[in-house]
Structures are given as C-alpha cells and as structure tokens.
Amino acid sequence: MAYLADFSTEKKYQAAVKKTERLTPADTEEIREIVLEVKQPGFECQVDQSFGVLVRTENEFGKTVHHRLYSVADLPAESNGKQLLTLLVKRCSYVDDFSGEQYPGVASNYLCDRKVGDEITITGPHALPFVVPDDKHANLILVGMGTGIAPFRAFVKHIYKQVKDWKGQIRLFYGARSGMELLYLNDKDGDLTNYYDEETFAAFHALSPRPHWSDPIALDTAMEARAEEIRHLLAQTNTYVYVAGYEKIRPMLDKAFANILGSKEKWETRKAELVAGKKWAEVIY
User: Which of 129, 132, 140, 236 is deepest in the core (most CB within 10 A)?
Assistant: First the structure.
C-alpha cells in the first residue's frame, strides 16, 4: 500500500479553476465537481493516474504544506494546448482523536471554497492501481462509494470511447447515502447511464435505508443480490476487481464476497489469487 509521503511533491504546477459546480442538493453533504486548467503546457494526467493538490496551512506548529491526491473524474481534455482535469471533492470534517473536537478537512474545504479563476498548486501525475487490462475479454468488477465513483467514471468512459470493442463484462457497484447523492447515475448528471445499452456494461447502486440517520450504505446487499453473476465472474481467471471508497468498505466487501462464495475461507483464497495475479486493486481513503 502506498502512503501520501511516498508521492513526490517536487514537481509543481499551477492550475486555474475553470468550473466549480455543486452536484448534490443543499440539504445533503456537499460534493462538487471542479474543472482545472493546468497553466503549464506539457502536463499530462491520464485516466489511470491521479494528481496531488498542495494547500499551505498554519497551525500551532507553524506553517505546513498539506498534500492530498485526487483521481481524474473524467476523460482528460485540452484547451489551447493546456490540460483540463475534472475532480470530485466532498466537503468533509474530522474529529480529533485526543480532543474530540471536530475540524474541517483541509484540502476538501480549500477546494470547495475555490471560485472560478482561482489558482491552486498541483503535483503529479501519480500512478493509480487501476489499469485497463490489455485483454479486451477481461471482466471488471468495479466497486465504489461516494466520491470513489470518480476513477471509475473516467475508466468506463475511456473503455467505451477510446479503447472500444470491449468483449468482457463490466459490472459497476456504487453506494451513496441517497438517490440525490448518486453521482453520474441520476436524472441530472447521469452520463454513466449512456452505457446502459452496451451489452457488456451494467451498473447497480445501493443507498442508505435512512440517509438522515447516517445508516450504513447497503452496498453488500446490492452485491449479494447479484450473487450468481458475481460467482460466475470470480470463477474466471481473467476477472479483475477494483475498489475505491471509504475505509469501511473493506469489511463490508469481505463479508459480501464471503457470503457470495459460500464461506470466508473460499473468499480469502480467491482474493489471495486476485492479489497475486495483480487483478485486485484498491484506493482507500
């Protein structure tokens, strides 16, 4: 597993905010789609890469630089020879383990507060573990929660728009607290639904039964409802599993896959095979 400290911040670039739009309603958690234009030509970040955002902060220990990584949430584009990058940001906060006080997340609040024309400092590009297999007959099980949909949106669009002629099966499982937070799969911004007519693509979503009570998102239930299909895919040697989302997605997935395969031992064996064959990848935050 890679840590933020492993990613170099030596190469820095300036990027201007070209667009910032809140995708979720005012009475839900704020998630914004932000489009950046990298000012220096020559910067190229692809769908299987991420980039960093540097935020200068000041605390009781003095001035520091805060570094956070973001996946590309759409196919990279160009404007006048400069790259355009799309990212998803959820405004978040955290509770201090010692004081119990709640503090705003540094990078997320910084980015959500930016206006069109503001400049930010970025790093990268940095590698992501999600790689499009060379074999067009490979199957992909993609599992994302919240802003974890970002890399898979770009991934799916890349496969069907740029790789083309994909023969393997692609199954996207996506969890959100409510239907209004179901990014890119709703009435307003549902561009992933454009691929519903592809014979090889299907997407399934799971919502929290009581979103205002912060009940857990029933992603495991949605997956177990497709148990027969998932078992069939996992039985094939050319199936990849990619996961992106919050830390709590790990135990949820282990439980779901164990139920689908019939036992914890069977899932542990199959997961070890996927990891050894470089067919399991995850981005957890």
Answer: 140
31-38 β-sheet, strand order: 62-71, 49-59, 119-127, 12-22, 31-38, 82-90, 77-79
Torsion sign across C-alpha atoms 102, 178, 259, 128: negative
Strand ranges, E, within the chain? 12-22, 31-38, 49-59, 62-71, 77-79, 82-90, 93-95, 102-104, 119-127, 139-145, 170-176, 201-207, 239-245, 280-284
SS3 127: strand
How far is it, in rounded angstroms, from Cα 275 to Cα 88? 28
pTM: 0.82
Select from 240, 247, 234 the least CA-distant residue to 283. Answer: 247
Does the N-terminal peptide bond of residue 104 adopt cis geometry, omega within 30 degrees of 0?
A: no
**Domains within the chain, CATH numbers bracketed:** 4-126 (2.40.30.10), 139-284 (3.40.50.80)
Residue 241, CB half-sphere, CA atoms under 13 Å: how many? 22
Q: Residue range 116-124: average pLDDT?
A: 95
